[in-house]
UniProtKB/TrEMBL annotation:
Pfam families: OsmC (PF02566)
Record field: transmembrane: none
PANTHER family documented for this protein: PROTEIN YHFA
Region of interest called Disordered, as start-end residue ranges on this chain: 65-84
InterPro entries: KH_dom-like_a/b (IPR015946), OsmC/Ohr_fam (IPR003718), OsmC/Ohrsf (IPR036102)
Protein name: OsmC family protein
Lineage summary: Bacteria, Bacillati, Actinomycetota, Actinomycetes, Micrococcales
Species assigned in the record: Kocuria gwangalliensis
């Protein structure tokens, strides 16, 4: 496996209230999420990220031929609890529902969809490939109490 030098992606998460957060990227784009009415949960955000990554791959290529008349992707997964007590998603599924005009461009775009979806999931979608490859997650903590010094752990 060769790894190419690619930019690092990052977001900053800010707590706005109990169980309410905003994730912000370096360009200032934001998404609110958390636990509660009107919010996507972190698990739902993960499903949206997987679906969104493949959506971009498919949309970029098919829209060169024509604009879709319908473009919807359902993303689902079943939360399971492992013997260790930890939880994760299993049986993650993407369901593509696309429609194109009945003309030459539409037929061309429609004919590309299955191949594009497979390429996205097998090669191009960074999000689904990261999940499939069980990428380790590392962390560090810095905690302050009052005006005292920070305690940092890795």
């Amino acid at each position: 496996m060769s790894e190419h030098q690619n930019p690092t992606h990052s977001v900053e998460l800010l707590r706005t209230a109990t169980n309410r957060y905003v994730a912000r990227n370096a360009d200032g784009a934001e998404v609110a999420f958390g636990r509660g009415e009107g919010l996507l949960s972190p698990v739902e955000l993960l499903l949206a990220a997987i679906a969104g990554c493949s959506a971009i791959d498919v949309d970029t290529v098919t829209s060169r031929s024509t604009e879709p008349t319908g473009f919807r992707i359902g993303a689902s997964g079943r939360k399971i609890t492992e013997d260790s007590g930890g939880s994760r998603l299993a049986d993650v599924n993407l369901s593509f529902h696309l429609a194109f005009p009945d003309d030459e461009g539409g037929r061309k775009a429609a004919g590309l969809v299955d191949r594009l979806v497979r390429l996205s999931l097998d090669k191009y979608c960074t999000v689904s490939r990261t999940v499939e490859h069980a990428t380790p997650v590392e962390f560090e903590t810095e905690v302050r109490v009052g005006g005292g010094p920070a305690t940092t752990n890795r």
